[in-house]
Specification:
It contains 18 helices and two strands. The chain is mostly helical. The chain has one domain: Amino acid/polyamine transporter I, CATH 1.20.1740.10. A hairpin with a 2-residue loop joins strand 1 and strand 2. It starts with a helix and ends with a helix.
Amino acid sequence: MSDSVKRSEGLSMFAAIAFAVGTMVGAGVFVLSGVVINVAGPAAILSYLFCGVIVTFSALSYAALASIFPEDGGGYLFAKKMIGDYPGFIAGWAMYISLLIATSFVLLGFGIYLNLLLGINLDPRLGALGAIVLLTALNLRGISEAGKLEVAMVVAKVSILILFIIGGVIQIQRTSFEPFLSQGTGGVFKGMTMVFFAYMGFQVISMMGGEIKESSKTVPKATLASIGIVTVIYIGVVIAVLSANLPAYNSESVFDAAVVLLGTHGGFFVALAATISTLSAANANIIGASRVTLEMACEKQIPGRLTRLKNNQPVNSILLGAGITALLIIMGSLDSIVNLTNVAILSTMILVNLSAYMLIKQEKKMPPEKNYFKMPMGTLFPIFGIVSCIVMIVNLPIASVTLGIAALLIGSVIYVVEDTPEGEKVVEEIRDLLGR
């Protein structure tokens, strides 16, 4: 085990689950629930359920790899160790891009619900841009969420959602779910492509592997537990929204349903929970993106000057990420941002599943005393993971896939750029910071 694992073994399994649930329970539930119901009808329940099952295939791969490589880095580290430097770079760069794109979507959700919370009607992009400026400033100062703070925030917003779900279940009527497949199976699949990225937050656990107690055992358990918890929450919220029998469904439907089910105060608390959760999820994404770049710079896969340190934070990386996020907020629509996020995250997941496949094929080389999470049914789940990710990608809009490929190619240019002497000094600083 490397020194990086020893540097901060502070997070419990509960805190690790809280970070993942906190990242996933954000815009994916508050903004997307109504949007997915609009395209899939009541069968949106199946969109979230099937997506949770498909993500679990890949999550098993993450869990197995994290038990072998319990350092920080997640999918980037796994692909680099098992497949090679360049595939590892592509996985890491795709993770970085996907986190930035997801941040722009989450902050647009923040802008939408900030309007509802304050009873105003500003362009949501203004609130989103204000939030990215605030979060960037905080991260440049070295301020990030502590485990206890994240647990408290997650408990607060999940508690509000549970009350909302209970309110929906109490008033549930069979007619609210008829016809169930109102948009056909095509609507269910389209809903799945929309919500796939909402589950990507489970990766935060493996990305923080070096800071989790007994990570080789805790990371797999926390990864699977977080997906299960979030799937139940997503489906519960969809059921509650449908129980409200709204005349139309959109990005504000969770708020509208809360007003119907719980009254004005219920709407206020749901809007409050949404603003808190989207803001904390965006911050978690920014922190995750900065960790990815630190790991990549440490391995000399990106120039050190892109991760110049100040207050132990990669300043240039954070500023670059903030600029890309702001541009997406200004130019991107919710649909296009979701699709672009999926292209990037699915690319990483394919490489991670391939890494898990190779790990299983090399199990005989593992020391007999090595304890790790063994994949049930051998290579079957990694193969399912690869196939499901490819199917999802080919069903995304061509424009989004093209942009995603372009983003990866731009990253490839960075991969071959020679570092400067100043950048090499930064790399040494990062190695010292990470205890390498």
